[in-house]
Structure formats: structure tokens, C-alpha cells
Specification:
With 408 residues, this protein is of the alpha/beta class. Helix content is 34%, strand content 20%. Helix 3 packs across helix 6 and helix 7 packs across helix 13. It is globular.
Length: 408
């Protein structure tokens, strides 16, 4: 990365609420969004973190929102909020100089599952002609490009749970190559479906606390037993700082560096040594012309799974030593929003910098040995100036992605 990138707008749709303000309030309150999910009844795990009261006719600005998968509906809502937040008027931009970079772990998986059931129940005649445009992984970016009239690159990335963060890095590369002036970058997923829930449960990845949904997701807590499946979308408007200044835009935060590595260790488990994550952190800091002593805060991946949290905590402790930054995981409230997580968490990291505050890690009560020496925020939000923050994202396949954000 050769130049900083300005974050001029944020949009979010999450289980804590629709919109950035609702999400921020929900996170600072520290109450989990998890609850029994009627669509998952009868499965080994039947709790999830759904986006509350989402109505595509209201929140996804489109004449025919029913044509889109739920993940695309989330994306449209988040993107329009981000554009409004950035003060962008589509009538005044050059559509050929605007790009999209959207991450998703599963594309339109809800559409695929629903149409497969129709095929089994009713035969080929029952399958919707909108099936392919609903579930193909590229179509979230494609539909958003059509909706906004964007004619620059419209790219879709997929690196499992790091997908949204990978999309943000892709956006930085597009800006650096001068292929565009503005990028809407982020991620979306709607994987609270019977197939996804059953598959994750079979892997042993989900919390089994059906009798305590709101206490199920416990990032870094000694009694964590898996994540809670979530859904949502996050979008950042990214521009070169000079472009943002020229149009009089407010800059919320600056994306000063990024790092991405691969463990080459296991399909689902992180490398227990944490080598890949540490290398990604060092790369992001080097690109930001910073070192570990400059980091004030980390938005951790913090999934609430036993292995991930211990590896991430150990890597942070070993890298930052006697001057630990504050650490939080938002998955205690939001659950794991999958391919959207890296984007939502990057947006929240930018918001933490802009608001000089960081939300708590919900349901963290009892530390284990791996969190010794780590300044984990718990109980209440913490107000403090944040000069440089990291957002960590890890994904199946061994992906490690780290974004370094600073004050403008």
C-alpha cells in the first residue's frame, strides 16, 4: 500500500440495529442480539442473531426488493446509508470513476436453499427464473452497481469470514492504481439458513447454549463454546484524501495500512502458533509507518470459539507485550456475521476513532490464561482518544487480514 485512504462514509445493517447509530447504541449497551430462531427449529442449534425488523420494502431502496437475496437487500440498505453519510450526490459523480468491492462468504445462499427445496417439492417448474441472479456470488455487487448506476469496476471477493476486509483491501488497490476516485467497499452475508446452521453445528463451531441465547457468544471468555450465527452488511465509502478534500468531505478515519497472509495450515483451524496473524499485523503497521507502540485499540476477530480466541489473544499478547492496546470483540452482541464481519468491524473501528470510544466485549466474565496481560474492554464502553487502531479478520482457509486505521 503506497498511500492512505480516507473513510468518508459508513453504512451498516446488523443484528444490533438497522443503521450505524442503532448498531453503535446496541454495541455500547452490550446486550447480545441472539435469540431462538423459528427457521432453525429442530436443528442441533436453533439460536441466531438476526437483523431485527428488517423490511426490504422500507430499508432496501429499490422498486422490486423481492427480486434480491436477503444479503443483497442488506447491502443496498448499508450502501445508501454510507452514501448519505459521505454526502455524495450520484447526480454529480462520474459513474465511470466509481467502483464497488463487495465481500461475501456464501453469496445468495438463502435463495439457493429455497429454490432447491422448490425443485425437490415441485420439480423444475417450481424453480424461480430469478434463482441464478439471486444466488450467484457476484450478483450482490452486480445488483448494487445497477441500483447506483456505477460503471467502474464492480468486484466481489470471497475469503470466508475475512471477505469484507479483503474487499476493503481490494478497494485500496483500485484507488492506488487510479482506476477510480470513489469506492464503496464492504461485505454482506445472510447465512442464517437451515443448511448453514446444520453444517456449522456438525463441525462443532456453534455454541450449544440453547437455554441461554443471549449468553451464548462469549468472546475470549473461559467458558466460550462456539459462535452464534449472524447476518448483516457493512459498507465504507473510500476515497483518496485529496479527492475527499476537494469536494469538502468530512473524513471519519484514514485507512493507513493493511496486511494479509495465509496460514497454509488447516481448512478451518488457525495456525496455533499465530505466525500468519502476527505477520499480517506487522505488515499493516509497516504500511502505516507505525509500530506496535503506536496502537491504541484492536477490534479483534474474537469469534467465541476456543481455538480462534486463544490463538488471537496469544498473538496480541506476544506482539504488544508490556504496552497492550485495548481490545474488544463485537461478536458478543452481533454474533458472527460471516463475510460481512470484516467490513462491519472495520466500519466500527472507524467509528471508534471518530467517536473517541470503543464498545465493550459482551459476555466476557471469566478470563482464561491466554487473555492474561490483555486490556480487554468489558462491561461498559470506554471513552478515550484513539490515534491508531487495528481491525483483525480471520477466515476458513487460513486467511489473516488486518486493517490499520488512524485519526484524520
Amino acid at each position: 500500500m503506497t498511500g492512505p485512504v480516507a473513510v468518508t462514509g459508513i453504512g451498516m445493517v446488523t443484528p444490533a440495529g438497522i443503521g450505524t447509530e442503532a448498531t453503535w447504541r446496541g454495541l455500547c449497551e452490550g446486550t447480545s442480539a441472539a435469540q431462538p430462531d423459528p427457521d432453525l427449529l429442530g436443528l442441533p442449534v436453533s439460536i441466531a442473531c438476526r437483523v431485527p425488523l428488517f423490511d426490504a420494502r422500507v430499508h432496501a431502496p429499490s422498486r422490486q426488493p423481492w427480486r434480491y437475496d436477503r444479503a443483497t437487500q442488506f447491502l443496498l440498505a448499508a450502501a445508501h446509508e454510507a452514501l448519505d453519510d459521505a454526502g455524495l450526490d450520484r447526480a454529480q459523480w462520474d459513474p465511470e470513476r466509481v467502483a464497488l468491492a463487495v465481500g461475501s462468504a456464501a453469496g445468495g445462499i438463502g435463495t439457493l436453499e429455497a429454490q432447491h427445496r422448490r425443485l425437490l417439492d415441485s420439480g423444475p417448474a417450481g424453480v424461480s427464473p430469478l434463482t441464478m441472479t439471486g444466488f450467484l456470488p457476484n450478483m450482490a455487487a452486480g445488483h448494487l452497481a445497477i441500483d447506483l448506476g456505477v460503471k467502474g469496476p464492480a468486484l466481489q471477493t470471497s475469503t470466508a469470514c475475512a471477505s469484507g476486509a479483503t474487499a476493503i483491501i481490494t478497494a485500496c488497490l483500485l484507488l492506488d492504481a487510479d482506476l477510480c476516485d470513489i469506492v464503496l467497499a464492504g461485505g454482506t452475508d445472510a447465512m442464517v439458513t437451515p443448511l448453514c446452521a446444520a453444517a456449522f453445528a456438525k463441525m462443532g463451531a456453534l455454541s450449544r447454549r440453547r437455554d441461554d441465547p443471549r449468553g451464548a457468544s462469549r468472546p475470549f471468555d473461559r467458558d466460550r463454546d462456539g459462535f452464534v450465527l449472524g447476518e448483516g452488511a457493512g459498507i465504507l465509502v473510500l476515497e483518496r484524501p485529496a479527492h475527499a478534500r476537494a469536494r469538502g468531505a468530512r473524513t471519519l478515519a484514514v485507512l493507513a495500512g493493511h496486511g494479509t497472509t495465509t496460514d497454509a495450515h488447516h481448512a478451518t483451524a488457525p495456525d496455533p502458533t499465530g505466525t500468519g496473524l502476527r505477520r499480517a499485523i506487522r505488515t499493516a503497521l509497516a504500511a502505516a509507518d507505525a509500530d506496535t507502540d503506536d496502537v491504541d485499540h484492536i477490534n479483534a476477530h474474537g469469534t467465541s470459539t476456543p481455538l480462534n480466541d486463544s490463538v488471537e489473544a496469544t498473538a496480541v499478547r506476544e506482539l504488544f507485550g508490556s504496552r497492550p492496546p485495548s481490545v474488544t470483540s463485537v461478536k458478543g452482541v452481533l454474533g458472527h456475521t460471516m463475510g460481512a464481519a470484516g467490513a462491519i468491524e472495520a466500519a466500527l473501528t472507524a467509528a471508534s476513532i471518530a467517536r473517541a470510544a470503543a464498545p465493550p466485549t459482551a459476555n466476557f466474565h471469566r478470563p482464561d490464561g491466554t487473555t492474561d496481560g490483555i486490556d480487554l474492554i468489558a462491561g461498559h464502553a470506554r471513552s478515550r482518544p484513539i490515534g491508531l487502531a487495528l481491525s483483525n479478520s480471520l477466515g476458513f482457509g487460513g486467511h489473516n487480514t488486518v486493517l490499520a486505521l488512524t485519526r484524520p
